[in-house]
Structures
1.
Amino acid sequence: MKDKSRYSRNIGILKESDQDLLSKKSVCVIGCGGLGGGVIENLVRIGVGKLTVVDCDTFDVTNLNRQVLSNETNIGKSKALEAADQMKLINSNVEITPIQVELTEENCRQIIAGHDLVIDAVDNIKTRFILEAACEKEKVTLIHGAIGGWSGQVGVSRPGDKLFQKIYPAHENDASVDTSAGNPSFTAAVVSAIQAAEAIKVLLGKEDALYNKLLMIDLSEHSYEVIEL
C-alpha cells in the first residue's frame, strides 16, 4: 500500500495482505450509470488497483435522480470519461481506463480480456448474454446486478455457470428490460453496494460469494431472499 492511513478503516473486514492484494487486481465495469457509478466509486474507495469503465452513453437530465456520477454541470458529457475524471479526485492511486464504445459481440472479448473480474451494470438482457458468453471464453467471473422499482437482484456467474440462461430463460433475445416500474436512487445504491461487496469477495477468493445463487431484494417490504440456482 502506498498510503496505509488511506485504507485504515478497511482493516477489520480486510487484512493488510487483503488490501495489498486488491491493489494488484483489475476490474472491468460495463456501464457507468445507476449501478455502474455506485460500483465504480465503491471499488475506487476500497482500493482496487485498476478499473476499466465502459459506456458509450452521455449523461442526460433523466439520470439526475439516481446516477451518482451525474450532476447539472455534466449533462451531455461522456459517462465513461466523467467516471474516470471524478474517481481520480477520490483516489489517484487507482489506474482508471475509460472506454467510450457500445459493447457488442465483436468487441466484448477484447474489452474484458486480462481483467480479474467483470461487473454487469448494463440495462438490457441482450447485452448481458453477450457479456456472459465473452466472460466464459475469457475465463473471468461476472458479477450481475439489475434493478426495477423497489426491487433488485445480484448474482455471481463463474465461467460455465450460465447464470442468465437460468434467470432469463424466456427473454434471451429481448432488447431491453421494462423500466416502467421506475429506477429510484436508493434501489441503485443498495444493489450497486452489494455488487461491490461481492466483487471484493471474489477478488479475495472468498467462498461465501453468491455463486450459483441469486439474491432477490424488495425494499418496499425489506425482503431479502437468496435463491439456489
2.
Amino acid sequence: MSYGYSYIINEVKKLDNVRVIGTSMENRDIFAIEIGCGEKCAVMAAAFHGLEYLTAAALMRFVHDFIQMQHYHQKIRVIFVPMVNPDGVEIALHGINPQLKYHKDIINHVGITEFTKVWQANASGVDINHNFNADWQSVLNAPSPTKYGGAYPESEPETRAVASLLRETVPDLFIAFHSQGKEIYYDFNGMENKLAKGNAEYIAKISGYKAATTEGTASFGGAKDWYIQEYHKEAYTVELGTGKNPLPHSQLDEMATDTRKICLGLIDRLIAETRGC
C-alpha cells in the first residue's frame, strides 16, 4: 500500500468531524479530525516532511483506535492533522511532473532530477519545520529538498494552516510527529512548560524512547518550538522509528504501537481534572 495523499483521502472519507484547515501550495486539502468534547484539548500532527509519510499512517491508526475509546471523549478534545505537507509526500513518493508549474520551478531552483529519496520540503522547496517563527532563520538561502526555511516565517500555506489551528484552539498539549530516532524533544530556549521534562521522561520510560533536547538546526524554526515560545504549554516533537528516511513499511506496525503509547500516556496526564462536555 502507498501511504500518500490518496490514503489520507480514503481514510477521512470514513470519518465524521473532519474539516479542512488549509490547502497546500498545490491546492491539496489539509485535513483535521476532531474527536471528543472535553475541557482539555490536544493537537497531534504528522507528515511535516515529505519522506516521513509513515508518520501519517501511524497517526491515522491511532485516530481509529481513539474513536473506539469513548471513555476519553467526555474528558478531552483531540484534533488530529495526519498530513501537514501533502505535496511533499507526493513528491517524495512519486517524483515530479515537469509539466506542472511548481515542479518546473523546483527543477530550476534545486537542480536535481531524482526526488523520491531526498524530498522533505513542500512544493516550493521550503522545509515546513523550519518555517515557523521561533528563532527563525533560513538555514539555506534557496529552495532545497530540506532545511530551507523560506523567505520569511509562515511564508507557506502549510505552516499557516498549522499555526492558525494552534492559535484558534490553544491546546494544552501539542505533539508533532516526525521520523526517525526514537526520541522525544520537549524544550525550546528554556521556555518549555514546567511539566514538559518530567512528562517526556515518563513517556520515554513507557515507550522505550529517549527524552532529549534539540541541537543544531533541529533547535529552531519548528512547530513545537513556536508553540512553546508563544504559549508556554506542553509541546513535543516525537521522532518515530529508526534508520534512514523514508523508513520501510515493515516499521509501520511498531511506529503505530509507539504512537499509541506516547499519545495515551500524555493524554492520561492531562485529564486528571476535567469537567467533561
3.
Amino acid sequence: MSSDERVLIGMSGGIDSTAACLMLMEQGYRPVGLTMMVWDNGTDSVSEAASLARHLGIEHHVADVRKDFEKTVVANFIEEYLHGRTPNPCVMCNPTFKFRLLAEYADMHDCRYIATGHYSRLVDVGGHRHICRGIDDTKDQSYFLWRLGEDVLQRCIFPLGNYRKSDVREYLRGRGYEAKAQSGESMEVCFIRDDYRDFLREHCRPEDIREGWFVSTDGKKLGKHKGLPYYTVGQRKGLGIALGEPAYVLKLNAEHNTVMLGSKEHLKAGYMLVEGWQSPDAAYLFDGDRRLSVMIRYRGKAIDCQVSRVDERNMIVRFMSEASAVTPGQSAVFYDGDIMLGGGYIANQRMLGRYLNSDYASKLVFR
C-alpha cells in the first residue's frame, strides 16, 4: 500500500466522518471527500464538510443527488408503508445509492478505496469478506449493511469499527476539535426530522391513506383506524382505540385496509419466513454446526436460530429462544458471533403456515 493511497470518504461534516477522515490521514492515506446532498435539509452538511476539507487541505466534491434520492430511497420508503410493510430506508440506501455513488466517485477521482464513518469492521473468512460488528454494541451499524456485495466490501475501510463513540469524541478533543466532539447525533432517518407519519401525510395523496377497520384475531371489527401506514407490527401506543386491555398491532392487511389487534402473547413467534436473502458465502450460512443468531430489528436483541432454505429466494427461520413482533419489511440479519453472514427481508408471514403445515415440512432441514 502506498503511503499516500487515495481514499474516497463520505463526508457529512458530522462527528463520525470527521474522525474517520482524520484517522485515515494519520494512517498514511490521502482522503478525497464526497458530500452527498440527498435532501433539502442537507446544506449545513455541505458547508461543514467543505470547511473541514479546506482546513485539512484535502480535495472535496459535492454530489447534488436529491432528485435521484427521492425517486429511489424516498419513493421506496413511502411505497413500503402504503403496502403494509415497515421499511429500513438505510438498508435500501446503502447498496443502491450511498455506496454505489461512493464507488463511482472513487473511480472518477482515482481512489482505490472508499471509506465511511460506520461503526462496523471487516473480516475475511473462508475466502469471503464479511462485515463484522463494531466493538461498540450501542453504535454497531452492521445491521444496515447486509446488502453490500463483496465487490464493494473489498474496497471498504471503516476507521471507526474498533472504537466506541465515547472514544471517538475523546479522539477529536485530543486533536483540537472540541466543538465537534460535543456535537449531537445525526438523525436516524436523514430525510425525516420528527414523526414519519407527518412525512407521509405531507408526501402522499389523501386517497393513499384512508381510514379503515381495526379487527380482532377472529375478524371482528373493533373500531376505525386513521390509515394503514400509521401503524407497525408490535405497536401499542397511539392506536387511538380503547379496548379495556392492552392491545398490540399484530398484522397489517393492505388489500383490505385492516389492522389486526391482539394481546402481547399473540406477537410471539417460533418461526418466520424471510425473502430476498443474500450472503457472501451461502454455504457458511446454511451448512455446519455453528451457532447462528438473527436480528429482526435494529438495536434488537440477537436471537439464536436455525435456518432452512426453501428456494433460491426464501428461507424459513426457526427461533431457538423467544421472538416477538416479527415485522414484514424489516431486515432479518444473521450472525455467527460478531461476523455478519448475510440477511433478507422479513416477508408477509401468511405463507409460513403452508410450509409448516403441509408435506413440504418434512423436506425442511434446519441447521
4.
Amino acid sequence: MEISGRTKLICLLGHPVEHSKSPAIHNTSFEKLGLDYRYLAFDVDRVDLRSAVEGLKTLGARGFNLTMPLKNDVVELCDELSDAAQILKSVNTVVIESDGRLFGHITDGYGLMEAVRTQANISVSGIKMVLFGAGGAAVAILAQGALDGMRQISVFCRKTSRFMPRLLDIAEEIRSRTGCIIEIHDYTEEEMRRELSDCDLLVNATNVGMAPDTDKCLIEDPEMLRPGTVVADCIYHPERTKLLSMAESRGCPVVGGKYMLLYQGAEAFRLWTGSLMPVEAVLKVL
C-alpha cells in the first residue's frame, strides 16, 4: 500500500514506545482492509503532551493511543469522555472528530470482556467476577465489567497497596452508577477460597506470573479453582502462565493475555475507522 496525499495518520504517544506492538497490529489491519491510514509511534513525554495533541489536531490526524502516565494527563484535554473513561479519569484512545473535538475512551476493560466473550463463549451480564489486582488494567476491567452488567465483582488488593485509595474511590463511583455489588478483599486464603467457590470468571490483572518470574501464582492450591470457572490472565509473556496451566488442569476454560491486547486494539480500531479489525490476521502478527 502506498502513502498518498489523502492518507490519514493515527499514532501512539508515550515514553518509551519502541517496544510497542500497536504499529504492527494496526498497519496490518489497514493493509488487510485496504484502508488509507498509517499508524506510527511517537516518543512524547508529559511536558510535551499538550503541544503534541495540538499538533495532531492541526495536521488532521484521525486519533491516537496513549501509554501511562499520559492516559491520565490527556483527560483534561478531552472535550468528551466515554462512561468508563469518566469513572477512571483515564484515557488510552482518543478520536479526533471532524470539528477538532477530542473524544476520549478507555478500551482496556473492553478488551478483556470481548476476549472472554469470544474465546470462552460466555456472556458477562449477570455473572460474578473475582479480580486480582487494583492497578490501571484492573480498574479498567472493574469498570467495564460493571458497565456490562456483571452482578458482583470481588476485588483482591493488599490493604497496604498504594492502589487502595484510588480503588475505594472508583468502586464507590461504579456502585452509584451501575448498582453492581463490589466487594474488596485482602489476599487471605480463607477469603480467596470463599469468593472463588461460586465465581463465574477469575481475572488476574497483576504482574504475578509475568516473565521472568513464571513460576509464581497467587493461587497456591489448584483445588481453589472450581471446574468450569473461566480463568483469564492479562499477562501475555509468557503466553501460558502458571495460573492458566493450573486452571486447565482443573477443567477451567482459559483466556490468555494476548486476546485482551488484541481486542482492546480492535475496539480502538473500530472507533477510528468504523471497521472491524481482521483479528485472525492480527493474531499471526502477535
